[in-house]
Amino acid sequence: MSLPSKPVNRRLFLQIAAATGASFATGAHAQSWPDHNIRLIIPYPAGGSTDVLARILAERMKDMFNQTFVIENRPGAGGNIGITALTTSAPDGYTIGAATVGHFAINQFLYKDMAYNPERDMIPATLTWELPNVFVVAADHVPAKTLAEFIAWAKQKTKINFGSPGVGTSPHLSGVMFVNRTGLDAVHVPFRGAAQTIPAMLSGDVTFAIDNLASYIAQIQSGKMRALAVTSAQRWPTLPEVPTMAEAGQKDFVVTSWAAFVVPAGTPRPIIDRLAAAMKTLAADADLQKRFQVAGARCIASTPEEAIAFAAKERAMWKEVVALSGAKAE
């Protein structure tokens, strides 16, 4: 992930200052924070990558802040239900959300009506992790060993399709990008998650997927799936032999499923800064990074301003891809 390297501009500074309700009156509260349990809303079901990674961080932050992080899974509507619960909570630092790229940069272009504004109602205290998507095919059904071979093979087929964990997810939109750029004629097949997509691929009913690495790493390592490329900017540590999309011939195809810890607008800035500082410490922990790598991810950290600037950059890209896909959600 490439964070903004230039100084944050005045607009971003004012956005942060206004949304955090920065004032001297919040000082006493911020200094005593946290003095009781913290609620961590995960807007997806238990067992998914967001849930697993957020729980790892909550476990470590429990020791750092000497307070329990109470996990609350609030799935539904592409994660909008959980984030709405976050944005309507008291801005006192005792409710945090594990928001993802969808909440920052995709859902607003998919859903006609959303109960929250990602640029106004929540503040990212810090980025938390990223994981790439991986281009995978079933080894028993697709002969291609490289992405170029796959494109040539697919163009000779009368029918191909690609699977994803649902309309509007980054795997779905990654597939749309790939099909559009290569000129392939492929049909999108949405599933409820990788647990359904994988059997369909192994049976030959689905041709390919560009899905979260975390969901496919076991299948790749077993040899049942063949990884043709990863969508990260650099090769991924646990799959060093797999090229990036750029190396495989697809330029400007950097896509990661990233996340941030967010708080309701109006949360005192000193509390936000403490969360950001804690993540900076965790991201520098080699043992924690190893745990994340096993899960197919990389632990990262940022300032609120860096996170806002990064989200703005991503928002511009995903707005275009959602429009290209024609996808809509209610």
**What is the domain tally?**
2
What is the multimeric organization of the chains shown?
single chain
What is the fourth-level CATH superfamily of the largest domain? Bordetella uptake gene, domain 1
Give a short account of the largest sheet. Answer: 10 strands, mixed
Task: Find the count of extended strands (DSSP E, 2+ residues).
Answer: 10
Give the averaged pLDDT, no decimals. Answer: 90
Beta-strand percentage?
Answer: 15-25%
Element pattern in H and E: HHEHEHEHEHEHEHEHEEHHEH
Give the overall form: globular
CATH topological fold name of the largest domain? D-Maltodextrin-Binding Protein, domain 2
Distance between the termini: 31 Å
Helix content: 40-55%
Can you tell me about this structure?
There is one protein chain. With 330 residues, the chain is of the alpha/beta class. It has two domains: 10-130 and 257-325, Bordetella uptake gene, domain 1 (D-Maltodextrin-Binding Protein, domain 2, 3-Layer(aba) Sandwich), CATH 3.40.190; 132-230, 3-Layer(aba) Sandwich (D-Maltodextrin-Binding Protein, domain 2), CATH 3.40.190.10. It is 42% helix and 20% strand. It has helices spanning 10-19, 27-32, 49-65, 80-87, 101-110, 147-155, 170-182, 194-202, 213-222, 269-283, 286-294, 304-325; strands at residues 38-42, 69-73, 95-100, 122-138, 160-164, 186-190, 208-212, 225-230, 256-264, 298-299. Strands 1, 2, 3, 4, 5, 6, 7, 8, 9 and 10 form a ten-stranded mixed sheet that branches. Helix 5 packs parallel to helix 12 (304-325) and helix 7 packs across helix 12 (304-325). The two termini are 31 Å apart. Mean pLDDT is 90; it is low at 5-11.
